[in-house]
Amino acid sequence: MKESITEVINTEPNNSEEELARVRKCLEIAKELVSERSQQAGRNLSYHVTTFGCQMNARDSEKLSGILEECGFIREDDELCADFVIYNTCTVRDNANQKFFGHLGSIGAIKKKRPEMMIGVCGCLSQEESAREKILKSYPFVDLVFGTHNVFDFARLLVMVLTREAQNGKRATVTEIWDDTDMIVEDIPIRRNFKFKSGVNIMFGCNNFCSYCIVPYVRGRERSRSPEDIISEITKLADDGVKEVMLLGQNVNSYGRGLDTKITFASLLRKVAAIDGIERIRFMTSHPKDLSDELIDVIADTPKICRHIHLPLQSGSSRILESMNRHYTKEQYIDLALKIRERVPGIAITTDIIIGYPGETDADIDDTIDVIEKVAFDGAFTFIYSKRTGTPAASMPDQVPEDVVKKNFDRVLAKVQEISTKQAAKIEGRIMDVLVEDINRQDPSLVTGRLSNNLNVHFPGDESLIGKIVDVKLTQCKGFYYIGERIQ
Ligand code: SAM
Ligand code: SF4
Fold first, then answer.
1. Whose CA is nearest to atom 4 of ligand 1?
2. Using an 8 Å Cβ cutoff, are 110 and 117 in contact?
3. Ordered mean pLDDT values, 10 residues apiece, the chain (488 residues)
4. 351, 360, 456 from 380: Cα distances, Å
5. What's the 391 CA to ligand 2 centre distance in angstroms?
6. Ligand 2 pocket residue status of 250, Cβ below 6 Å
7. Which of 183, 366, 397, 431 has the most CB within a 10 Å radius?
């Protein structure tokens, strides 16, 4: 057994098929190892995956969970009680890093009491060399560190963790980080968090190199999945009861570049909309520079596509946008957003805005406020600029002092809230479709659902409604959500 394990984990696949064959072998080996450990413990081993950051990470976590369950682990809701805890990290902003390291320190204290507990760290932070070194040096109790490119290879890493003492007599941290990959491995086990909705990766990585952003360095070059694989996955999801899919990519509008088949994101959307059982389609994220008229037409003509587009602005100042390497001006953004509003009535437009980018002046903030007013955003994530080592913006002069950033942040946030509250109130009194997602956390006599335009609605109901699309009258606008009542 020992020899064959070593052989399997050391094989070097040359393509996605060979990789998948290795994944399958590793899954079999991991199953046996987990079963042995469960027998020794007299109970099933449990796992917990804690996810930081974006929808991409959430989807990766579902893959990790799927692999762990395939290997025989059972899900444990309490992170502190699990036998294997995985942290799927984010490094887009430094405060996410700080938060994570604080958390990791506290889990180290738990591991002292339960030395058999296994801890893994993956995701964007692990791809950063300095962060990785910090984990290995200051948190040596971590059992496994891997990155964003080898999530599909997790079964093999699991085998390495479970056999490391037998293999080399040590309990040292297993570390495997790939700099990049051009492989996309399909058919990995997945454990979805929701029965009725699912994220679907349509592409990985990013080629845009916005000057402030670390994503292209930690997620690698852009690669699109084949339309056949995407459609086959969504068809299976629909057969399994999924009604809503969220197509995921850092820049979905450039979907298809580099594929042998000539296909655009708009034509992929048409194919997805033709799948029986899929009733709602969302996507994230649209880069304004690549948003085509064809895409606007497809959204307008396809009721299954939700009336919501997330269109990150980043800044309203053309000067700052140029420095950010965003490839559009203030005026081009406004024209695009207003064109979308005109062609798709009722669509909600949300955005991301960074405040405090190097060199940003009051006049630049005035421009950002002007865009917020002209486009009338339905919602915005406002972020304080975070210096990411290795990005061009990190070494720019004129980093903005903290007190100025704070003042500008408050100004932008107040404007966003004023405008988005007005936008939300526009549909008060209407009857609209709601996909019911959960029991309301504060009041269990209510359920929580989502409108096509992405606003949340809370209304009286019970568990039997979860996963159903029902008509709800929007009785009371509460700023950024609604209270409603079901219309039978
Ligand atoms: N690919 C998406 C796009 O370009 O629209 C965005 C993905 S990024 C993970 C999400 C958001 O994080 C960005 O839109 C940007 O507003 C924000 N962000 C990225 N780098 C940042 C930084 N260094 N400081 C603050 N916010 C940042
Ligand atoms: Fe980052 Fe820009 Fe790529 Fe979005 S498009 S992930 S902001 S580099």
1. 287
2. yes
3. 74 84 92 95 96 92 96 95 96 90 92 93 94 94 95 94 81 89 82 94 95 94 95 96 97 94 96 98 96 97 98 98 98 98 98 98 98 98 96 95 97 98 97 97 96 98 97 96 95
4. 5, 19, 15
5. 12
6. yes
7. 183
